[in-house]
Design brief:
The protein is an alpha/beta fold. The protein has helices at about 30-45, 60-65, 105-120, 140-145, 160-175, 205-215, 225-235, 240, 245-259; strands at about 15-25, 50-55, 75, 80, 85, 90, 125-130, 150-155, 180-190, 200, 220-225. Bound molecules: adenosine-5'-diphosphate. One of its GO terms (molecular function) is ATP binding.
């Protein structure tokens, strides 16, 4: 919701993009991509022009989450045009390879693919580019954090200790390279039964909030473990589009308002 200054400090310039927000997690499977697309949609609902870049080269999920497939067009033999759906500009390595093709690439190739998707895509003009980061704190993450002028990072974690330990590493990495932590999102804390509406804290509850307090970074809110979020993700229609008035959608909107 707040306006960020122009991307600064990085060696990688991203034409057409006013500000870049990374969505990161310490490990995979915690809901980083699902938060990324719903956050992008919630920012769109705030009236911003928004793009979503899938930097998760080894496990691209934006094509499936956004229900978009096919190859991007190339203009003047160089600039790729982003795909679009739901009013978002989208780019993913998944648009360029078949879904079951493994990306057998070493670090430098991963970074060059990410850099291409930043600089050789005709973005914008965009107010915000949300980047769905690869999980962990490897080479690609570090390069992104150091060379791309990130306005800040949103960290997604489940409440479990293990996920939190990994999240802590991610936070430490961003802090070390002076990328502001916009806050932590706790995902999959409370399970809401689709039959009875009853609540169970399957992976515990409150761990991410406590961690945020301990680290002195904002706690952005929690998203429950909800069947409909998973079903609609698989169907290529994010919950913010399928059920915009649901409490789950409200959760993502509350996060967008704080970043
Ligand atoms: P990551 O990007 O961290 O690997 P994903 O966003 O791909 O994680 O989510 C992993 C799986 O969990 C997906 O099948 C997704 O639909 C599901 N998922 C994510 N968040 C939720 C949630 N709050 N409730 C239910 N399912 C979820």
């Amino acid at each position: 919701g707040h306006s960020h200054g122009p991307a600064k400090g990085g060696a990688i310039e991203v034409p057409g993009v006013a500000s870049i927000i990374a969505v990161a997690s310490g490990k995979g499977g915690v809901g980083k991509s699902t938060v990324s697309i719903n956050l992008a949609l919630a920012l769109r609902d705030l009236g911003l022009k928004v793009g979503l870049l899938d930097a998760d080269i080894y496990g691209p999920s934006v094509p499936r989450l956004a229900g978009v497939h096919g190859k991007p067009e190339v203009e003047d033999g160089r600039m790729m045009l982003p795909m679009d759906n739901f009013g978002l500009q989208l780019m993913s390595i998944g648009f360029m390879v078949e879904e079951d093709t493994p990306m057998i690439w070493r670090g430098p190739m991963v970074m060059s693919a990410i850099s291409q998707m930043l600089r050789e895509v005709k973005w914008g003009p965009l107010d915000v580019l949300v980047v769905d980061m690869p999980p962990g704190t490897g080479d690609a993450q570090l390069t992104m954090a150091q060379q791309v002028g990130l306005a800040g990072a949103v960290i997604v974690s489940t409440p479990q200790d293990l996920a939190l330990i990994d999240a802590r590493r991610g936070i430490a990495m961003f802090k070390r390279v002076n990328v502001p932590i916009l806050g932590i999102v706790e995902n999959m804390a409370t399970f809401i039964c689709p039959h009875c509406g009853g609540r169970s804290d399957i992976f515990g509850h409150g761990g991410a909030r406590a961690e945020a307090e301990k680290l002195g970074v904002p706690f952005l809110g929690e998203i429950p473990l909800h069947m409909r979020i998973r079903e609609m993700s698989d169907a290529g229609v994010p919950i913010l589009v399928s059920d915009p008035d649901s409490p789950q959608a409200e959760g993502y909107r509350a996060i967008a308002q704080q970043v």
